[in-house]
Amino acid sequence: MKQVIVVNEALKLPRGKLAAQVAHASVAALLETDSRDQIAWLEEGMPKVVLKGEDEATLRDLEQKAASLGLPVSLIEDAGRTVVPEGTITCLGIGPAEDARIDEVTGGLKLL
User: How far is 11 from 112, CA to CA, in rounded Å?
Assistant: First the structure.
C-alpha cells in the first residue's frame, strides 16, 4: 500500500506553499479511499511518495487514468488566498492503494 502525490512543477511553488498543497492532496485522497484500504495503509505506516508532474494538463491526465482504474483520487485546486490564483491546479493525490495499481498510473514519473 502507498499513496502518491503528484505536484504541478510548472508553478514552482515556494516550499511552504508546496508542503501545504501536498498535505491537502494526501488528506483529500485518503478521504476518497474505502475504509479497508485506509486501515491497511495506516497499519503500514502511511507510506507516500511525492512525484513531479510537468504541468496542469499532466495532472488532469493522471487523474483520468487513476479514476478509470478505480483508484481513489483527488485533484487539488487552490483557494487563491496567497501565491497562485483561485482554481489553480497544484497537486494530485492518488491512493492509498496497492503499489502496483498506482504504479500503472505514475510509474514513469520522477521523485520531487
Answer: 13
Measured distance CA(80)–CA(68) in Å, rounded:
29
Can you give the CATH number for the domain in which 56 is found?
A: 3.40.1490.10
Contacts of 82 (CB under 8 A, 6+ apart): 17
d(CA 75, CA 93): 6
29-44 confidence digits (pLDDT tens): 999 999 999 999 999 9
- Specify the pTM: 0.96
Please indicate, yes or no, if residue 111 is contained in any of the structural domains. Answer: no
Q: Going by DSSP bridges, is the β-strand pair 2-8/73-77 parallel, antiparallel, or unpaired? A: unpaired
54, 6 contact by CB (below 8 A): no
